[in-house]
Amino acid sequence: MDKTIAAPSILKTKQHFEILNGLRGVAAFSVVIFHFMEWVYSDFSQNFIAHGFLAVDFFFCLSGFVIGYAYDDRIGKMGIWEFFKARLIRLHPLIIAGSVLGLLAFLFDPFGIHTESYSTGKIILTFVCSILLIPLPVIADRGFNLFSFNAPSWSLFWEYVANIVYAFVLYKIRRSYLLLLTLLSAIALCLVCYRAGNLLGGWSGPTFWDGSARISYSFLAGLLVYRSNWVIKNKLGFIGLSLLLLLAFVMPYSTWNWLSEPFLVLFYFPLLVALGAGTSSTPVFKKICTFLGNLSYPLYMTHYAVIWMFGNYYTNHQPDAMQLTLIIVIGTIILAGAAYLVMVLYDMPLRKYLNDKRKERLLRRKTGL
Q1: What is the span of the domain harbouring residue 281?
Q2: pLDDT tens digits for range 52-61
Q3: Position 294 in a domain
Q4: Backbone angles phi, psi at 302, to 5 degrees
Q5: What is the pTM of this model?
Q6: Which member of 195, 196, 298, 311 lies 3.0 to 4.6 Å from 339 by CB, making a disulfide possible if both were Cys?
């Protein structure tokens, strides 16, 4: 086969929005710090990053925008199954990695639970469901998370659902219908928040359906921002927009969450996406944003195994404030380093291998060889 043949158009990648990549990284680090701090302060009103969990809603909104940008004009050519293959290659290697790390943490946590109280069959079933992204909230010592060995996978479950709905429905509907769906999902999100008092749900069995409201609105809103070309030209840059994003996460936790949290998700995060798409960065910050964007998903999907161990250590030993500060700062740095190693030694090589195989197959199909 002629090696000079160009890759099919469905495999060509578009330019990236560097600032949005950087903001994704900022949100991922915020999630890590939030997960440390929620063990320390069960009373969220004392937690300086009590709304760090809303980073997931920002991820969802960003995902809607990026999926629309990347696939709206080519999913019809590439076909639904090729779209699914592309998304699986992008997302699933780290779902598996996070599940493996979570299983190891469950079995060998030096501060933790008594695994002998769980049968081997139950552990194996939970692990298999975790790598296949099938919700199974059955481990009490893991807070009945949908995915007991890697809690953040709950958002990837809903991301997969959103991608399926996009492929079969959303990519071909008119903007007026997209707007209607977005408004309906906004109502659902407000009802969920009013009922629960916050938007923290979605990760556990009892709050399963809260996740559907969170993904529905934010993904649709991100897609609507892209299709409406609501890109706001500005000079805020990476630093300015990072500070604006962090303001949402450090907003005080109060009895008014049922109003403030929907405001952030319904209006503020789509606005930040529109601003992020409309600004540019210097060469130095472009490299930083690219690095943070690449690291964000590995960090998000691999950090929680250590969070469980930290929680068990904190519960058993009650370290003082100075020790906690050192543990959280050093722990975050170590988790970032570990995520980087997972990214360069596992995720990137595996995705490159799978994408190369996919490219070869598509080239053979194109040339008839």
Answers
A1: 9-362
A2: 999 999 999 9
A3: yes
A4: -120, -5
A5: 0.94
A6: 298
Distance CA 125, CA 54 (A): 30
Query: What gap in Å lies between CA 41 and CA 253, rounded to an integer?
Result: 12
Q: Is residue 347 part of a domain?
A: yes
At 312, give phi and psi (nearest 5°): -70, -40
Which three-class secondary structure state does DSSP give residue 306? helix
Tell me whether residue 369 is in a domain: no
Residues 123 and 210: their CA atoms lie apart, in Å, by 26
| Beta strand extents in the chain (DSSP E only) | none
Using CA atoms, how far apart are residues 291 and 353, in angstroms rounded to an integer?
A: 21
Domain count, the chain: 1
Those residues with Cβ within 8 angstroms of residue 222's Cβ, 6 or more apart along the chain or in another chain: 60, 61, 62, 63, 64, 65, 66, 67, 68, 270, 273
The secondary structure of 320-366 as a DSSP string is -HHHHHHHHHHHHHHHHHHHHHHIIIIIHHHHHHHHHHHHHHHHHHH
pLDDT tens-digit series, residues 227-277 = 999 999 999 999 999 999 999 999 999 999 999 999 999 999 999 999 999
The model's pLDDT over 179-210, given as tens digits with 9 standing for 90+, comes to 999 999 999 999 999 999 999 999 999 999 99
Q: How far is CA 152 from CA 104, 133, 157, 198, in A?
A: 16, 11, 9, 18
Distance CA 294, CA 315 (A): 33
Residue 80, classified by CB atoms within 10 Å of its CB into exposed (0-12), middle (13-18) or buried (19+), is middle
Cα distances (Å, whole numbers) of residue 122 to 98, 104, 135, 323:
18, 15, 14, 36
**Residue 4 is assigned to a structural domain of this protein:** no
